[in-house]
Design brief:
This protein is mainly alpha-helical and 273 residues long. It contains eleven helices and no strands. Keywords: Cell membrane, Membrane, Transmembrane, Transmembrane helix, Transport. This is Riboflavin transport system permease protein RibX. It is a multi-pass membrane protein.
């Protein structure tokens, strides 16, 4: 009789989480695709003799990025962009969440305020940037205001939609049990709408980074957007690409952080199911 071999820890983990292997394969495939694209870019630039002023090779961009980080040139600009992005996300996200809850709870407020909210979003923020500089001066303040306005709407709209899509049977049960309006909101609507609200947060974070960089294009002396403008003036294309790589890295890390926050916040509800 053949003895049974107890499963190892790794095999037990894969058995408990069957999606771990496909996820790892997807990451390896994405990494392989990145390597292929960078290699094709490098070969094309070298073989065609394209000037670094027009399109630098990935090796030149990597060298510039490394030297800029090692010398400490980029770190203050990265810190400024991060600060503007997070402040704008905090202000715009808090306003979006609060107004979304208010509009979902009050039909009167929804009818009165919703048109003004929509108008505030259809006006291009870039067109308002000179006014923000005039009102708030140069520096971080106008960029934070622009970032807050840009990331406000997706969180507000997702909050409003998620709170209105509560299961009517559960809502009726809460009312039959005599729950107050605050209890219905805190114990039913917000937990039920949490996935949609967190999805809005992910979109808001990406837009906050875009708003911070775009705001730095106008009147900012620090930040990765200001680095891109300065590099354009110096015709230093590798530095422009290095700043773009730093922006992309910030966006990817921020997006992954929101995914981790979403898993942590939704874990009690997924465990119950």
């Amino acid at each position: 009789m053949t003895p049974k071999i107890p499963p190892t820890r790794a095999s037990a983990t894969l058995t408990q989480n069957p999606s771990a292997k496909p996820a790892a394969s997807s990451r390896l495939l994405a990494l392989a695709l990145l390597v292929v694209l960078l290699a094709a870019w490098e070969i094309t630039v070298r073989q065609a003799g394209i000037s670094a002023l027009v399109l630098p090779a990935p090796s030149a961009v990597a060298t510039t990025l490394w030297s800029s980080l090692a010398s400490g040139y980029l770190w203050p600009h990265i810190g400024a962009t991060l600060a503007e992005m997070l402040l704008g996300l905090l202000i715009g996200g808090a306003a979006g969440l609060g107004i979304g809850v208010a509009l979902a709870e009050s039909a009167l407020l929804d009818r009165v305020l919703k048109p003004y909210v929509i108008v505030s979003q259809v006006v291009p923020k870039l067109a308002l940037a000179p006014l923000f500089v005039l009102w708030f001066g140069f520096g971080m303040a106008p960029t934070v205001v622009m970032t807050a306005l840009i990331c406000f709407f997706p969180l507000m709209e997702n909050t409003l939609t998620s709170l209105r899509q509560v299961d009517p049977n559960r809502l009726q049960l809460f009312r039959m049990l005599g729950a107050t309006r605050a209890q219905v909101l805190l114990r039913l609507k917000l937990p039920s709408g949490l996935p949609g609200i967190l999805a809005g947060l992910r979109v808001a974070l990406v837009l906050a980074l875009v708003g911070a960089v775009v705001g730095e294009f106008i009147g900012a002396s620090r930040g990765l957007g200001a680095v891109i403008i300065a590099a354009q003036g110096m015709m230093d294309t590798p530095l422009m690409f290095a700043a773009l790589v730093a922006i992309a890295a910030i966006g990817l890390l921020g997006y992954q952080a929101t995914l981790m926050l979403e898993r942590r916040l939704l874990r009690p509800y997924t465990d119950q199911s």
